[in-house]
Design brief:
It contains 1 helix and 19 strands. With 338 residues, it is mainly β. It binds zinc ion.
């Protein structure tokens, strides 16, 4: 998916000018001053740029932070992509000031990136909304914007996936923290998960539970590390069911939906290996086809949410199961809050 999170970005906003305090006599030092800890800084919190009623997931739903996909196959995804219903409204995540509005893609002159700056307790943040069309007239550079205000609509894109033409609306949402720098591109980008309001966390959890996206079998968290190497292997350990005790899935690079796999028994012996092809945008559940090095192919369904995976496979040569009946469940290490 071309989410548009890459490329250059304007410089950090300047801190607001500091108004000097009125001159007061310096206090006389006390006999043994005890350092007083600074009061806790006000924290930057965000809502999501999407409302519950505007969310759909037939083209992924959410692409998480850090995942390696399409145009972020090398450096990892620097934000969250949200899929909207066609016509869905993009909303400001926090109070701030419109920093820039631009249409950086020559071939899509109506698809804007809007950047909003935020100063909280002397720290500079920026929220980025990439892929907005019909930007509202009130959204102009230097305008104040309130949390929840409509910026525009999620731009509609169309592309061929496999043999099907897919039309969908999506934005790339990014949070830049100018006290942080790392990575190859979008070096101030941090996981939006760090700043969620309680309401945003509740909504995000709902959206996330239904999301299915490329790379999920090896990068299943809403915040994944950007700095990784391929091939990437993730080990899933069975909690329930009849399939193999251990399944390892290995992704060769940051853009493929084709994996290799190994199934291991409880003693660690390999009992089957081969290739696995996933179709992450199939619904109601993404599909996985296993082609072992010997024996017939098996068609299945998977459903991953954070460190949990449900997996159901048909018998060799049989048709694909239609739902999770007698499925096996697996867990992997790590957590969504990493
Ligand atoms: Zn993106």
């Amino acid at each position: 998916m071309a989410c548009g999170g890459g490329g250059s970005s304007p410089a950090a906003p300047s801190p607001a000018a500091t108004i000097p305090a009125a001159t007061t006599p310096a206090p006389t030092p006390g006999p043994s001053p005890t350092p007083t800890p600074a009061p806790p800084a006000a924290t930057f919190t965000i809502d999501l740029p999407i409302s519950a009623g505007d969310a759909v997931n037939d083209f992924g739903g959410v692409n998480p932070f850090g995942v390696h996909l399409a145009d972020h196959g090398v450096d990892g995804h620097p934000g969250w992509d949200f899929q909207y219903r066609i016509g869905g409204l993009v909303r400001a995540a926090a109070d701030g000031t419109v920093q820039s509005i631009a249409a950086p893609e020559a071939q899509r002159p109506n698809r804007f990136v809007v950047q909003v700056s935020h100063q909280v307790s002397g720290r500079n943040y920026r929220t980025v909304y990439f892929g907005v069309e019909n930007v509202r007239s009130a959204i102009v550079v230097n305008a104040s914007i309130s949390r929840g205000a409509v910026i525009g609509e999620a731009a509609v894109l169309s592309q061929v996936i496999g043999t099907a033409q897919r039309t969908y609306a999506t934005i790339h949402f990014q949070v830049d923290d100018f006290s942080y720098s790392g990575g190859l591109t979008n070096q101030n980008a941090v996981s939006p998960a760090l700043f969620l309001s309680a309401g945003a966390l509740a909504l995000f959890t709902t959206l996330w539970n239904d999301a299915a996206y490329s790379g999920e079998p090896t990068e299943p968290f809403w915040s994944n590390p950007r700095d990784v190497t391929f091939p990437m292997t993730r080990r899933w350990t069975r909690q329930r069911g009849d399939l193999a005790e251990i399944i390892e899935l290995t992704r060769p690079n940051g853009t493929s939906n084709d994996y290799s796999y190994r199934m291991l028994d409880a003693a660690g012996a390999v009992i089957e290996s081969g290739t696995a092809q996933t179709a992450p945008f199939e619904r109601p559940f993404p599909t996985i086809d296993l082609s072992p090095t010997s024996g017939g192919s098996r068609r299945g369904l998977y459903d991953i949410v954070n460190n949990s995976m449900r997996l159901v496979l048909g018998a060799a040569g049989a048709s694909r199961p239609t739902g999770f009946t007698n499925e096996s469940s697996y867990t992997t290490t790590g957590s969504a809050s990493m």
